[in-house]
Write a structure and sequence with these properties.
The protein has one domain. Helices cover about 70% and strands about 10% of the residues. It contains three helices and two strands; from the N terminus they run αααββ. The protein has a two-stranded antiparallel ribbon with strand order 1-2. The relative contact order is 0.04.
Length: about 110
């Protein structure tokens, strides 16, 4: 066993192997730093987007409440004053029956 370990250590003393090993370690450290940087950037972006979503949600809520207030203030008299005209005749709808022919619905 001692001879096996001694042979491996001697191989590592070879400059090419040492430089390759050092290069691999350097690449791994750089990749780790890039991944940590990307993770932190994603966390910051997520926080910003969550605050924007909260702002937009409040804006939509305000618009919905404004819409409901305006909707509840519309009456038949107001609609007639704005030019609403009631239909004079009953509407006719045409639909295709399953047999392929047309039928009239009133």
């Amino acid at each position: 066993m001692t001879q096996y370990v001694q042979e491996k250590v001697e191989r590592l003393e070879n400059p090419i192997t040492a430089w390759i090993l050092l290069g691999v370690i350097t690449v791994m450290v750089c990749a780790y730093g890039l991944f940590i940087n990307a993770t932190i950037s994603n966390i910051v972006a997520t926080k910003d987007l969550q605050s924007k979503v909260a702002t937009l949600t409040m804006s939509v809520s305000d618009l919905e409440s404004e819409y409901l207030a305006v909707k509840s203030s519309v009456t038949a008299d107001y609609a007639l004053a704005q030019g609403l005209v009631t239909p004079k005749s009953e509407a006719i709808y045409i639909s295709r029956a399953s047999s392929g022919s047309l039928s009239f619905n009133r």
